[in-house]
């Protein structure tokens, strides 16, 4: 059996426990929760599996070296002294990505540049040839993370962020990130055992992620490429075996997933994206203004949506959020309604008391993911029964 090694899956703030649960269910070992990341161990096949199958991960990193650093010369020397020939050919290409939390280093681009210089100089000195930088499709993507005086060097096995699933060709002005959408659906507790609705569906991201969760379809099957496919130890047979094994675990779905949007162009884009994802048999999208709709039938409905935040439209937003509350109250009995917003003032105008409120960060904005339970009939009658 191949040796296990440590990996780190990066995620969004507030999704760490979801990601840890996903990793455990996939079969990871030594799962440990950090801030915006979860570390774990597994073998090469599991690294492929994690990239294909995790819904709330942004990147899967493979740490290769950790050391203390005092200053930029120290950083350069220690990176120069690493055995880069084990990971890259002298004629290959590389890209460096850096994140820093340090008093000594204050600019991530500078750290990335210094790292690149050290790697390139090492190759030039030892082989007479030097790798080139390729920011789009490098043979090796290096991740540098400096936390105070500790420097972690990792290989980025994912390449492009894992939220780029490959099904979205059309987006709106403020599209929701696929990892965020999947995490919201999972946080809301939806398990595919009732109808699902996104009443302000935009380009259809929440709908697509909900359908993949319901059917247990791996989220990253449609990716064009993962960074590990350019590594020296790339094993295409193993990758295909992992892919088949994940596909064999898909399941049937017997309910409806519905999307509304009042913008005809959004509806057209959403339909394109759902078609690209091969999910049209599960999802129907209609051109509707949510505020003029009501729930069809008496079956339980699970709703997750991302209303506009309108950072500069405070007065209109208050009215808008009041409309959300009124529509839910009057038209959607028997519904668990969840939505995310960073407009915390407008949230007060919904006029309903949330039964849950989860603190998240959306595109660097403080956000709340709130749940409103709309009972059939009155709440009092519900408890009396």
Automatic annotation (TrEMBL):
Membrane-spanning intervals of the chain: none
Taxonomy of the source species: Bacteria, Pseudomonadati, Bacteroidota, Flavobacteriia, Flavobacteriales
Alphabetical UniProt keywords: Methyltransferase, RNA-binding, Transferase
Domain of life (superkingdom): Bacteria
Originating organism: Formosa maritima
Limits of the THUMP domain: 46-157
Pfam families on file: RlmL_1st (PF22020), THUMP (PF02926), UPF0020 (PF01170)
Keyword Repressor among record annotations: no
Protein's UniProt name: Class I SAM-dependent RNA methyltransferase
Any one Gene Ontology molecular-function term assigned to this protein's record: rRNA (guanine-N7-)-methyltransferase activity
SUPFAM superfamilies documented for this protein: S-adenosyl-L-methionine-dependent methyltransferases (SSF53335)
């Amino acid at each position: 059996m191949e040796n296990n090694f440590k990996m780190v899956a990066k995620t969004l703030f507030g999704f760490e426990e979801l990601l840890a649960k996903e990793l455990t269910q996939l079969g990871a070992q030594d799962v440990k929760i950090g801030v915006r990341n979860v570390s774990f161990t597994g073998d090469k096949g599991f690294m492929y599996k994690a990239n294909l199958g995790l819904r709330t991960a942004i990147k899967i990193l493979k740490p290769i070296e950790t050391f203390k650093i005092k200053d930029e010369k120290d950083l350069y020397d220690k990176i120069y002294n690493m055995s880069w020939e084990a990971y890259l050919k002298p004629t290959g290409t590389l890209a460096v990505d850096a994140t820093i939390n340090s008093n000594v280093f204050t600019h991530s681009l500078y750290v990335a540049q210094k790292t690149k210089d050290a790697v390139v100089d090492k190759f030039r000195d030892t082989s007479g040839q030097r790798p080139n930088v390729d920011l789009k499709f490098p043979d090796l993507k290096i991740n540098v993370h400096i936390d105070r005086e500790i420097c972690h060097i990792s290989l980025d096995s994912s390449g492009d962020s894992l939220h780029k699933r490959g099904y979205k060709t059309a987006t709106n002005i403020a599209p929701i990130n696929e990892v965020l959408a999947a995490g919201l659906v999972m946080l809301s507790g939806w398990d595919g055992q009732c109808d699902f609705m996104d009443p302000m569906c935009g380009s259809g991201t929440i709908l697509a992620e909900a359908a993949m969760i319901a059917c247990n379809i791996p989220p990253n099957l449609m990716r064009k490429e993962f960074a590990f496919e350019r590594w020296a130890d790339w094993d295409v047979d193993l990758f295909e075996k992992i892919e088949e094994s994940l596909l064999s675990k898909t399941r049937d779905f017997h309910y409806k997933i519905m999307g509304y949007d009042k913008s005809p162009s959004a509806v057209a884009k959403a339909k394109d994206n759902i078609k690209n994802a091969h999910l049209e048999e599960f999802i129907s999208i209609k051109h509707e203004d949510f505020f003029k709709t009501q729930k069809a039938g008496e079956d339980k409905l699970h709703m997750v949506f991302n209303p506009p935040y309108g950072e500069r439209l405070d007065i209109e937003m208050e009215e808008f959020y009041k409309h959300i509350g009124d529509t839910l109250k009057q038209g959607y009995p028997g519904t668990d309604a969840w939505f995310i917003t960073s407009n915390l003032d407008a949230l007060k105008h919904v006029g309903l008391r949330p039964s849950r409120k989860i603190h998240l960060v959306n595109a660097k904005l403080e956000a709340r993911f709130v749940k409103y339970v709309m009972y059939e009939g009155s709440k009092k009658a519900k408890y009396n029964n």
